[in-house]
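Cross-check.
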Amino acid sequence: MGNERQLKEEGEFRYLEAGDGPPIILLHGLFGALSNFGPLFDHFTPRYRVLVPILPLYTLPMLSTNVDNLARFLERFIRHKGFAQVNLLGNSLGGHVALVYCSRSPETVRSLVLTGSSGLYENAFGGSFPRREDKSYLRQKIALTFHDPKHVTDELVEECYETVNDKAKLIRILSLAKSAIRHNMAGELPKMRMPVLLIWGRQDTITPPHVAEEFHSLIPHSELHWIDACGHAPMMEQPEQFNAILGAWLDKTLG
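Predicted model, tokenized:
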């Protein structure tokens, strides 16, 4: 992402920030890098203040590595920035973190956007990496994230390879995946009062379409939009369509 050089470091926080206007905080998933949000970040910074905090997936104490503590981290970040109200956008595990935060501090959330979010059900990488030394196996695993395998770059495979072959990181990933499955949000969703936008890839195999339908039926003020020829990371795979849907909804919701 072109803005990598602007990574700010303040205390426990490392994040990107650009633009002016209402704050939008983007939350990445388990294997999410900042690059996942490149097109989105660049598209919205002219009208919004866009922030991408790096979630402490690998730096929390082992026993505290769960969705709950990631939501507490988000709470500290929002307090650190002094925002009275924020707009949250989360992909995959990032969506789950946003949901837990919303259930705790609803008054601080102006709007919420979920895309391929966990929190109800996810088909999480089968829960293990039996052949993690095998790059072609990892490439196949990563390909499950996308509708079109062209998005599985060598760089992505390399990044994943390094992560899953680092014992401490691997244990944390599996711990987070398990905690996400345990921390089901179905009971909390009907209480949410903020406007919620759901943007889902029709070919998402990790949080399949029925998950989006369930989110939509449980969250009172939600709107569901589908993107075709698209898997689990719509903002990466179909950025133009994603940005168009999101832009129109933000105009209507925050206007």
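The chain is about 40% helix and 15% strand. Strands lie at 8-10, 13-18, 23-27, 49-53, 86-91, 109-115, 196-201, 222-227. Passed to J.P. for a second look.
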